[in-house]
Amino acid sequence: MSNARKLFDEDLKVINVGLKIFYEDLKRQGVRVVQVNYQPPPKLEKELKDKLSELL
Amino acid sequence: MSLKEQIEEANKKAVERMMEAEPYLVDTKLAKDAIPGFREDMLLHAGPPITWERASGPMKGAIIGALIYEGKASNEEEAIKLVERGEVILKPNHEVGSVGPMAGIVSANMPVYIIEDKKFGIRAFGNYNEGIGKVLRYGAYDKEVLSRLKWMRDELYPTMKAALDEARKDKGGINFKAIIQQALHMGDECHNRYVAATSKFMNEIAPYLVKADVPKDAFNRVWDFMKNNNFFTLNIGMASAKAMTLAAHNIKYSTIVTVLTRNGTDAGIWVSGLGNRWFTAPSPVPKGVFFPGFTQDDANPDLGDSSITETAGFGGFAMAAAPAVVSWVGGSVEFAVENTKNMYNITYAKHKYFTIPYLSFQGTPTGVDIRLVLKTGITPTINTGIAHKKAGVGQVGAGIVKFPFELFKDAFKAYVETYGA
């Protein structure tokens, strides 16, 4: 609990993964933030996914 | 050799050929005299195959305008009847080695550029650029549009022809790959920004215009037209890209995309190892910056063969080379850099000759691989012009658009069926 409280007392340093809107919002507020681009892999049917693994 | 190894070998060959092609602008002729198999009753159009019934507003507008330009109809009603009676053959540019931006309509008596690839001997064609705003390729066809097209045929075309005859005699034509290469170092990405490329081209063509001894009045009008149209060389760049991608096409086993295009209704792709088979999905509506008086609601789904530039490894894929392009298509400089970086995730190679100063002269992302699109879910992101959805209005803005994922999934399924993986 005390560690969590400490976290909120310190300056935030954020690594944002995925949706960029959170990165942009934090940046606008002067928070130190790094963006990591990520999107979940597409959903493929199992057969297609297997073929892709075989050929890539 | 396993199929995976065969793919690797084929893709290496395809992308190598794409990068090594040497497109030169060698000549210009009327479409009916330049493009093999062209017929008087034929209209070429952008994107995958389309019927009149399914065509969008700007595509219909451009078809109507071309039929009036050709003297086959004297007004809109006559033109529509002609098409509805089935007296006009609509054929995709890509199926005859040609390209045209937006509606991409090419009719028999429109002049086209002839590009010759000096390395592999392939020919490609592209129509002339009319400028921006109210123009045929965005679906406008009023008196101003038609009289400009007639001037282009009657004065611009013979002037260009005379200059290119001289350029061909002197040094085999104008090396347009070299112009793209230099323009990428001068702030163009060579899809939606052709400011530097057009200036370089004007420098190249000037001595041949003088040598051709064209009448002074014609010279002045042609020079002003080029000077006032920053997109003058877009169509030459596109036809050059078509020659490059044709060099990579029809390589057995290759999973590299050789056509990315849209007709205002559907988007479509070709894959090297699958020949001229179209894979299509509904064309998305671009998001962008609009001219005063227009909004996102006016935008038509995307159209044009101009994404052949991205297919060949420049255009939107080289946005990091062109920070100023974001003032035209929207987004931020940061986005421009990010888009180029993102496209490395779905491309086979970094271009050997097209490089980006801001990225430490790294080669542009080149050769979209359908397998990588399927693996990452990232699809080619391009920049584009935006046409009004109603026929007759013209260009209303410019923006950015992503190709639909389904195209690549369908192509991969067909690949697996074809090669029995």
UniProtKB/TrEMBL annotation, chain A:
Superkingdom in the source lineage: Archaea
Protein name (database record): FdrA domain protein
Species annotation: Fervidicoccus fontis
